[in-house]
Specification:
The structure is a single chain. With about 120 residues, the chain is an alpha+beta fold. The chain is built from one helix and four strands, in the order H-E-E-E-E. The relative contact order is 0.14. The model has no long low-confidence stretch (mean pLDDT about 95).
């Protein structure tokens, strides 16, 4: 009799299990990279929103009044909100301005970015 060549059923099943585990791990890594890329894009767009609002306040050329406000911002068809908080400082010629950008992820508001600056009297 000739010896048979080939793989046994057990060897084939073990090889398929190893391939399945490898593909699952690769799929998880790909998903993590896609989420990280989306998060980076969201933060970059949020940075634009916050900087635009702080620049708008500077261009008014007057010291902003203290208080909180909310400004809508659309960047790359993404709807975000800029929460602006103007606070007094020990020196009455300056104001602290905090801008927090929120976006919606799955219908829930998510804080994307926080940016602060000091603005002086002109």
């Amino acid at each position: 009799m000739k010896p048979q060549r080939g793989f046994t059923l057990i060897e084939v099943l073990v090889a398929l299990a190893v391939i399945a585990i490898t593909l699952a791990a690769g799929l998880q890594a790909t998903g993590a990279l896609a989420r990280a890329a989306q998060r980076q894009s969201d933060q970059w767009l949020a940075q634009l929103c916050a900087e635009n609002e702080l620049t708008r306040l500077r261009l008014l050329r007057q010291l902003p009044g203290t208080g909180d406000s909310q400004v809508p911002c659309t960047q790359a068809d993404r709807q975000m909100r800029v929460l602006v908080s103007v606070l007094p400082t020990p020196n009455p010629n300056f104001r602290r301005i905090d801008a927090v950008v929120q976006g919606d992820v799955d219908g829930n508001p998510v804080r994307l970015l926080s940016l602060s600056t000091i603005q002086g009297r002109y």
